[in-house]
Write a structure and sequence with these properties.
By secondary structure, this protein is mainly alpha-helical. It has 7 helices and no strands. The termini are far apart.
């Protein structure tokens, strides 16, 4: 089904059922390309009452599953790189994770979604992912202390300079 999401064009979701199908596709997808993200952003929904609450709940579940899938894949890849001493590939792995995490913020482009809901969800995602990112960097730092490895130290130097989320200007 992820191949469908990545290759097949689909209409922007407009009904609750369309959105549920879209959420199902996002859950099983390994990545979301820009075309899919734009199609989703063009979706619409009458966001009122009980259905609005259910929609927001399903959206939050979908985002959590998307993030968990990306974290699981990242950790698996990171462990493989460390175990095979392919430390030069760690920085691109972090860049890929950053890009995938930012694609999980697709909901910020949904014009019909209440801005307070968007803000809460965005802050939750950012807080959780920044914590995960910091914990992973700390783990790598401890690894450099335990097994003095200049390649890992060099990678860590570069990783620390990667911005997980773009800085926003508050006016």
């Amino acid at each position: 089904m992820s191949a469908v999401l990545e290759k097949e064009q689909f209409a922007p979701p407009t009904t609750y059922e369309d959105w549920l199908n879209c959420f199902d596709m996002l859950r099983v997808s390994t990545s979301v390309d820009n075309g899919v993200a734009m199609t989703i952003a063009n979706g619409s929904f009458i966001n009122r009452g009980y259905i609005a609450t259910q929609f927001q709940h399903k959206l939050a579940e979908t985002i959590n599953e998307m993030l968990n899938k990306r974290i699981t894949r990242f950790l698996k890849d990171l462990n493989l790189l460390i175990s095979f001493n392919e430390l030069s590939d760690i920085v691109p792995l972090f860049v890929k994770l950053r890009n995938e995490i930012n694609k999980c913020l697709f909901f910020t482009e949904l014009s019909f979604l209440d801005k307070n809901v968007k803000h809460e969800l965005e802050e939750s995602v950012k807080t959780q992912m920044e914590r995960f990112w910091d914990d992973t960097v700390m783990f790598l730092h401890k690894q450099t202390l335990e097994i003095y490895n200049t390649d890992l130290e060099d990678s860590l130097f570069l990783i620390r300079r990667i911005e997980l989320f773009p800085k926003t200007v508050h006016r």
